[in-house]
Amino acid sequence: MSKETATATTVEAGPAPDHLTHGIGASLPTAEAGAKTEGTFPYAADLWAEGLLWAAVLRSPHPHARIVSIDTTHAREMAGVRAVVTHEDVPGAALYGRGTADRPVFASEVVRHHGEPIAAVAADHPDTARMAAAAVIVEYEVLDPVTDPEQAFEADPLHPDGNLIRHIPLRHGDSEAGGEIVVEGLYRIGRQDPAPIGAEAGLAVPRPDGGVELYLASTDPHADRDTAAACYGLEPERVKVVVTGVPGAAADREDQGFQLPLGLLALKTGCPVKFTATREESFLGHVHRHPTLLRYRHHADAEGRLVKVEAQILLDAGAYADTSSDALAAAVSFACGPYVVPNAFIEGWAVRTNNPPSGHVRGEGALQVCAAYEAQMDKLARKLGIDPAELRLRNVMATGDVLPTGQTVTCPAPVAELLEAVRDFPLPPLPKDTPEEEWLLPGGPEGAGEPGAVRRGVGYGVGMVHMLGAEGADEVSTATVKVHDGVATVLCAAVETGQGFTTLARQIVQETLGIEEVHVASVDTDQPTAGPSCRGRHTWVSGGAVERAAKMVRTQLLQPLAHKFGMSTELLQITDGKITSYDGVLSTTVTEAMDGKELWATAQCRPHPTEPLDAEGQGDAFVGLAFCAIRAVVDVDIELGSVRVVELALAQDVGRVLNPAQLTARIEAGVTQGVGAALTENLRTARGLVRHPDLTGYALPTALDAPAIRIVKLVEERDVVAPFGAKAVSAVPVVTSPAAIASAVRAATGRPVNRLPIRPQAAVVTTGQ
User: Which residues form the Aldehyde oxidase/xanthine dehydrogenase a/b hammerhead domain (predicted)?
Assistant: First the structure.
C-alpha cells in the first residue's frame, strides 16, 4: 500500500459543506479516479514504443572501492545487445545533483555507495539487458567505508568537495543563561525510505533533431530536463520531459541515476529505450530520509518555562550532498519546536559518508528534531511532576513570537488551541479482556503475551514545518487558463503527485469563472516552469498562478458587459454558470457572454522573498509555517516490547479547507507515514551495504497497522499572504506523529525511548523498572 493511498484508518473530521458540488470547498473527486480504479491509468511502467529496447544498469556491490578497470567487451558481444555506456560515453557534464552537482552519472574512479551506477546497457529484451549488465567486468580495489557520520569529520575525504557539506551554528540570546531544571538526551533517527509501490520507470525516445524526449514520473520536470541536457551536451530546447502518471510521491520521486543513462542509450542507439527498476534497484538508487544523531540539553525554570535549549544535530547525507543543506537548515531552525525559547544555541552539521544517499523526504529535518525536542519535553514534565500537556501549553508559541532564527512568526500559529483540542478529546475505551478481542492486543492474533502484560500509554507531539522553499529560493509558478465553447483548460507544469493539485486547479477555475467543465492539461517541459512538487508548493504558488490567470480571464469576460451596462466589473458576479449584476438588471449565461470567443490569460505567482541564514543562523528564511498537535494512545506488551497504536487524535491549522475529502486523505496519508517512521521503517545497513532491499526486509505499515485517526479540530485561520489563505497539510502530520507515538510508549513503560523506529527492546520493562 502506498503512503499516498493508505486508507485503513477511521477518520473523523468536522462537518463538510455537502451541498457544494464544484468550486472551492467542495469534495470534488479527482479526474483520474476512474482510470486508476479500473487499472487503465498510464504510468511510466506501462509505456510502449515501436522498436523498443530495454535498459539495465550495473551498480556497485561495494559501498566504497577504487575502480581499477571496466571491461565491457563481453557485454557488447552478447546477441541482442545494442549499446553499452560508461563514464567515457557522457558527452556533457559528468556530475549532477538536485542541490549540489557532486554526483557522477557513472562512477569512473571511485564508488562511494552501495548501488552506485557504473554502466548501462540497451538490448532487445529486458533479460538480455540484465545479463549483459552483469557481464560487464569491473575490477575493484575495495576500500574501508566510512559509515559513522561522527567519524566523517576525521576521516580522509570521500569526495573532492570534502566530507563536510554544511555547518550551521545558530546563536540566539544569552549564552550564559541557565535554568533551575536541566535535562539532557541523546537521540537517533533511522533511515526511512520513500518505498514507492510503483518502482522507478521511464522511456526515452530520440528526436529527429538529435535531441531526446524523456517520459518520466518526474516531480520536477524542468530541473530534470536541465540536468539531462547538461549531461548530454545539448541545449535544453532539444530535451523534453513528458510527465507520466506518478504513482504517489512522498519524496524526490525519481532516481536520476537511471534517467540520465536512459537518454544516453536512446541517443546512442537511435531507438526508444525503456527502463523499469527492480525493487532492489529502487531501494539502492533513490534518496532516503537522513539518519540523524541529536544531543540536547534543555534548561527550564521551576514552573517549567523554557529558558535555554542547546543542541547538536548531525545529519548523515550519505555519499552525496543532494538536498542535505536544505534539510539541515530546517533541522537547525526548528530544533526548539513550536515553543518560545528566549535563548538557543544549536550546532548543525551535514556530512558525507559511504552510506546510501539521503535527500528530500517529506518533513526532512523537522521530523528528526521533533522526535528529540518532544522527548526532552517529556523528561522535563517528569522531572517537574507536571502533566506533559500542561508543560507544553506553558511554552507554546503564538503569532508574533520569534523563532530562534530571529524571524517573527507572522502567519497564524494557533498552537495552544491545537494542543488543547487533542488533550480534551475523549480517550478511547480500554480493550476487553476476552478471546474475541485478542486482536486488539499488541502483535495481533496469537502475537501478544498475557493481557496482564499490556500497558496503555498516552503521549503528545507538537510539530511544525515550513512551506515552500527557504533561504532565498525563488519560488515561482506560471499558469495559463483558456476558455472556449463553455470549456476551460488549465496549462500548468505543476505535477500531480497525489497531493490533489489538478483537482484544486479545476475547483479554482470553477469558482472564478462559473464554468463546471474544466480540464487540466498533461505536463511537459514545453510549458513554463512551475517548480518541484514538494512542501505544499503547488497549493500555494501554482494554485495562486491559476487563480490569477482565471481572474484575468474573468475580467476579459465581464468588461464588455460592464461597459455596456455602465457599471464596474466588481458589481457583477458569476454563480453556477450565470452572470448577474448586483441589482438584477443584468442576467445572462457565461456561454452567451462568450459568444463563441476564446479567452485566455497567463499569470505568475511568486511569494515574498526570503533570505539565507547568516553566520549565526539568523535570518527570515521561511515564507510560511504550519503546525500540528497529536495525542497518541498506545498499548505496549512490556514483556515482548510490541507496540500497538490504538488511536491518534489530531488537530491542525490548515488556513482554509479547499477540498474536505482531499484534505482528510492527505492528513491520513501523512500520519500513516509517520507511524512507519515510529515503529517499523528503517533501511538497515551493515558497513554501508543495504540489508534486505525489498518489501520483505523493509517493513511498511499495512492496513492492519494503521490506527484510528481522529481529526478533532481543523483551525481555519487564513494566512493572508497565501492564495486562498490555505496551508500545506501533509508534511506536518508526518513530522508530529512519530514524536507522539514515542511519547506514549514512554508513558506506558517509563523507558526513555530515544531511538526511531522504536525497537522492541526499548519497550520491554524488566523487574524493578
Answer: 38-144
Best-predicted range by mean pLDDT (45-49, 331-335, 606-610, 657-661): 331-335
Report whether 29 contacts 186 (CB < 8 A). Answer: no
Nearest to 14 by CA among 469, 657, 730: 657
Express each pLDDT in 125-167 by its tens digit: 999 999 999 999 999 999 999 999 999 999 999 999 999 999 9
* Grid coordinates given for 91: 558527452
- Whether 249 contacts 360, CB under 8 Å: no
Is 304 found in the same domain as 272? no
The residue-averaged pLDDT of 651-680 equals 92
Both 463 and 499 in a single domain?
no
Q: Please state, as a whole number, how many other Cβ atoms lie within 10 Å of the Cβ of residue 305.
A: 15
Burial class (CB in 10 A: 0-12, 13-18, 19+), 80: middle
Q: Are residues 324 and 420 in the same domain?
A: yes
Q: How far apart are CA 183 and CA 181, in angstroms?
A: 7
Following DSSP, what letter does each residue of 96-149 receive, concatenated? E-SSSS-EESS-SSEE-STT-EEEEEEESSHHHHHHHHHH-EEEEEE------T
Kindly state whether residue 4 falls inside one of the protein's structural domains: no
Q: Give the tens place of pLDDT for each residue, 245-277.
A: 887 766 666 678 889 999 999 999 999 999 999
Q: Output the CA torsion 575→577→582→585 (10° steps).
A: -150
User: What pLDDT is recorded for position 335?
Assistant: 98
Statement to judge: residues 563 and 685 lie in one domain: no
Summarize pLDDT for 356-400 with one digit per residue, the tens: 999 989 899 999 999 999 999 999 999 999 999 999 999 999 999
Residue 201 in domain: no
- Number of structural domains (the chain) is 3
Query: 429 to each of 53, 289, 633, 651, how far by Cα in Å?
Result: 59, 35, 11, 20
Same domain, 130 and 267: yes
Q: Is the CA virtual torsion 388, 389, 391, 392 positive or negative?
A: positive
654 and 587 in a common domain: no
122 and 219 within one domain: yes
700 touches 692 (CB < 8 A): no
Average per-residue pLDDT for the chain: 90
